[in-house]
Amino acid sequence: MAKPGRNEQASAGLRQAGGRQATPRQAERRSTERNPVDRGSAAPRRGAEQHRIQFADRRRSWRRHHLNVAREALLRLKQTPVASLMTLAVLAIALALPGFLLAALGNLQTLTDGWDPQPRIALYMQTELSDASIDSFSRELLLREDLSSVELISRQKGLEEFRQYSAFADLLERFGSNPLPAVIMVLPRDGDPLQLPLLRSELAALPGVDEALLDMEWVQRLAAVLALAQRGSYVLGGLLALAVLLVVGNTVRMTIESRRDEILVSKLVGATDAWVRRPFLYSGFWFGLLGGVLAWLLVQLALSLLAQPAQALADLYLNQFQLQGLGVQGSLIMLATATLLGLSGSWLAVSRHLREIEPGVAIPGDSGSGAV
């Protein structure tokens, strides 16, 4: 009789053991039990594995996400061109007014910087006096302790300066003699505004003096007017900055209301407040930046329209004066301020209204819809 094969013997043994054939996992476990040395050998790992994200990858992902959100926010402005242009026009006008005032005050300040701020008193001498007597009178003024300097402008020197700097030099030809008087410019030692009028009256009463003028009074008044105008421009700028905050905040608020359902769904799936807030912040950023650019264009346009008449007026007094614009520093300050105001307005609006949009909170004023 032929001997049964090895497979037949294994099948017979399994039938004797219980009539069941071992599964592959049971066979593998039995094989491991028979060979304990192979138990520590490397086996294929199953299930989830933990991966560590590098800082450079996080930074690239963060930058790519911000760029995408900024691009989408700009595209949303293009989807509503009429409303966006109206909002930008309001922002541009509100930002251009203080910018134009500050530029105009800067040009006026440039005009007054070349003038001597020290008060001087001009003594116009009588035309009947001779040059020798006027020179002797000026030497006597040098002995006064309340005067720090005395400068004599003779009649001939005054005539030469009038011909050189005045546009009415041809009128002098109609006079038979020099009609200009000698002038003595004195610089008071004490610049107290309360004492200067008293000193002027005292010098005007001296013999030989026809008239005494405190010629820096109008410069001081102009400086006071400029200081007042500058302070007023700051106040106006603050009020208009508040208006910009309100305009941007109201615009962002309406955008939030139009996307309420989208925000609710995003929060339901686990979106954080920072993630939800980011698109609206970029909307305020674009409103501020574009409004600042339009405001800068309006200021430059206004200054260019005033450049020719201002130059014609300046030629009558100062030949080298030119109307200046905002400059690089002023332009950067305007753009940075406009962008900061746009971000601040959107931040205030989002921080206030985003707390009202939460899953499970009913929409205020909507009785027909229940909690989400």
From TrEMBL:
It comes from the Bacteria. It is a multi-pass membrane protein. Residues 235-353 form the ABC3 transporter permease C-terminal domain. The keyword Nuclease does not apply. Residues 26-37, 46-55 have a biased composition (Basic and acidic residues). Belongs to the ABC-4 integral membrane protein family. FtsX subfamily. Forms a membrane-associated complex with FtsE. The chain crosses the membrane at residues 82-105, 234-252, 285-306, 326-350. The keyword Signal does not apply. This is Cell division protein FtsX. The gene is ftsX. Keywords: Cell cycle, Cell division, Cell inner membrane, Cell membrane, Membrane, Transmembrane, Transmembrane helix. It holds the Pfam family FtsX_ECD. Residues 121-211 form the FtsX extracellular domain. It is found in: Cell inner membrane. Residues 1-55 are annotated as: Disordered.
